[in-house]
Specification:
It contains 18 helices and no strands. By secondary structure, the chain is mainly α. The chain has a single domain, classed as MFS general substrate transporter like domains (Growth Hormone, Chain: A, Up-down Bundle). The radius of gyration is 20 Å and the shape is globular.
Length: 425
């Protein structure tokens, strides 16, 4: 389980590194480079629009790779999705700017961002299911939380590279070529992730399946459409909160408040590091007390914290901004730490890869695709952007209602016997 959890975490870290490095570049440099004819605000909105395309393609990736996962196994998904995302990310680093290529530059950027999202849409289902279906029932949330730390690790890698480059290079050097280096580095990271995954065994639960679903998506739509919509709505707040602090806050702090780019990156990175460290600790509570109670508590905490978070961000004081971001991410992680076990448990094994992945990635469309765009538009004015706080609070209440309609899935406690086999999901 340790080797499996490490390989799953490494893969999700690499995939989310690819995804996040684009988000950071969109917040800092892509607007002027690829949309120079726009005003500064419109350029930022356009850059975040290309960021949103990656979320729109994620559900398509979950359908494509979910079909592979339910028909041919979870393991092939891990390789194909990582390879696709890695190649697309390296491609982004090679796209010439608008000054060199004209309108073809943003078109290419958009196309590669679409492919990034397609690969990431398949990654989560494969990595999580392989871990969940190997794990013993009484520690399923704990082991599945390790792939869930991958996004935090990927974010720290992406922004750590960005921070180092922005500190070592002048603004002119960073805009000319420095921002491309993290995208090129994705190729090496993807190769390392593929090597780690090469020795993983197929999920035992998949191998035990009798008749496999011929068309998993059709079965999901026919028999589980309500569940897909509820899980998408339930997880939307997680995306909204994370991308508001990791992407919109960077842009808002640097462009609206005049905070130094390095200071903003350090504030966000420190908060994400704490979030990643506490994820497995919170997951232990999910194994002990259930998945649904933690999800409800996390959504409620998000709803209560959004206005204080925005108020703290608007002070432009680094320690207060850090406190606001950290509070939001700790509320978010209460829910996020258990969903990797919760979503697969809601679906029957024959369509689990498709159902769980589609629900998870539709949540990305609802909560992640538009959040930076909406938040940037709502923060275009004087004073604290309370409209952003209201928007995020509304998302938290929506997710709270959806979780309230979902059942608990924690397996009934059983007496632990040393050497006993894992209980099938």
């Amino acid at each position: 389980m340790r080797r499996l959890a490490l390989a799953s975490m490494a893969g999700t870290a690499v995939e989310f590194y690819d995804f996040f490095v684009y988000g950071t570049a969109a917040a800092l440099v892509l607007g002027p480079l690829f949309f120079p004819t726009f005003s500064p605000l419109a350029g930022t909105l356009a850059a975040f629009g290309t960021f949103a395309v990656g979320f729109l393609s994620r559900p398509l990736g979950s359908v494509l790779f979910g079909h592979v996962g339910d028909r041919y196994g979870r393991r092939p998904v891990l390789f194909a999705s990582l390879l696709l995302t890695g190649l697309a990310t390296v491609g982004v680093g090679c796209v010439p700017s608008y000054e060199t290529l004209g309108i073809a530059a943003p078109v290419l950027l958009l196309s590669l961002r679409f492919l990034q999202g397609l690969g990431l849409g398949g990654e989560w289902g494969g990595a999580v299911l392989l871990t969940v279906e190997h794990a013993p029932a009484h520690r399923r949330v704990l082991w599945s939380s390790f792939p869930q730390t991958g996004p935090a690790v990927g974010f720290l890698l992406a922004n750590g590279v960005m921070l180092a480059l922005s500190s070592l290079l002048t603004d002119a050097q960073f805009q000319a070529w420095g921002w491309r280096v993290p995208f090129w580095g994705a190729g090496l990271l993807a190769a390392g992730g593929l090597l780690l995954r090469s020795s993983l065994a197929e999920s035992p639960r998949f191998e035990e399946l009798g008749e496999r679903a011929r068309l998993p998506l059709v079965e999901v739509v026919r028999g589980h459409w309500r569940l897909v919509l509820l899980t998408a709505g339930a997880l939307a707040v997680g995306y909204a909160v994370f991308y508001s602090v990791s992407t919109w806050a960077l842009s808002y702090g640097t462009t609206r408040l005049g905070v130094d780019r390095t200071t903003m990156l350090v504030c966000v990175m420190a908060a994400v590091a704490v979030q990643g460290a506490v994820t497995p600790l919170v997951a232990l509570l999910g194994d002990r007390y259930g998945r649904r109670p933690l999800c409800l508590a996390g959504c409620a905490a998000c709803a209560l914290w959004m206005f204080p978070m925005v108020g703290l961000l608007a002070t432009a004081e680094p320690l207060l901004m850090f406190a606001g971001i950290l509070g939001a991410l700790l509320a978010f992680v209460v829910m996020f730490s258990v969903v990797a076990a919760y979503l697969p448990e809601l679906y029957e094994p024959r369509v689990r890869c498709t159902g769980a992945a589609v629900g998870y990635n539709l949540a990305g469309v609802l909560g992640g695709a538009l959040t930076p765009v909406v938040a940037t538009a709502l923060s275009d004015g004087s004073g604290p952007p309370w409209g952003v706080a209201a928007y995020l609070t509304g998302m938290a209440l929506l997710s709270l209602g959806c979780f309230a309609l979902l059942p608990e899935t924690r397996p009934a406690p059983v007496r632990e016997v040393e050497g006993a086999p894992a209980v099938a999901v």
